[in-house]
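Researcher: Next entry in the queue.
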Amino acid sequence: MMAVVDPTLEFERELHESGAHWVVGCDEVGRGAIAGPVAVGVSAVLARCDPHPDGLRDSKMLSEKRRETLYPLAQAWAHASAVGLAEAEEVDRLGIVAALGLAGRRALVHLHEAGVRILDSVILLDGSHDWLTPAMTAAPKVVTRIKADRDCASVAAASVIAKVHRDRMMISYDEVYPGYGWAGNKGYGSAAHFTALGELGPSPLHRLTWLH
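Model: Structure for this entry, 212 residues:
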């Protein structure tokens, strides 16, 4: 059984000590879905911040109920947080990597509007591939880190915030485009979802280039 790892702020502290005023944890959700937007969550923390919420984890390691409980706690803990979206049509038109960058840029615009000086920040991006910098006109410093969503509290918070935000959107679409089981599959390719596609055809939420 895989051991549960508690995220810490150790890496964020290193980035603060190297000169970053804000460290902005960044993570995406919905990348592998066949319907709905891709979402990028961002969570900005200062060098002096309160301890992160007890039980905070990468969203993939939490039940839906636990994510819902942590969502407001993660939002309240961060200096500022936001979610940016790129819709299914944009994923089809631009490709998933460019759509991720677009969603990330939109999330950072929201942070800027909340008072976070993005160019004085370091963006801590989960994974090994920097898909964010090519989407920016004035690029902040971006640091990639594998398993940052597991190990770094700012990224774990961003993960939970983005996941709950997107899941709530997909659940709300059950009434708009019924029959696909959005409340259960959240746009991912479950067997029931593919059965519904065969019976109903694609909805405006579907990424058409992903269905071929």
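Model: The beta strands are 22-29, 38-46, 80-86, 121-126, 141-145.
Researcher: Noted, moving on.
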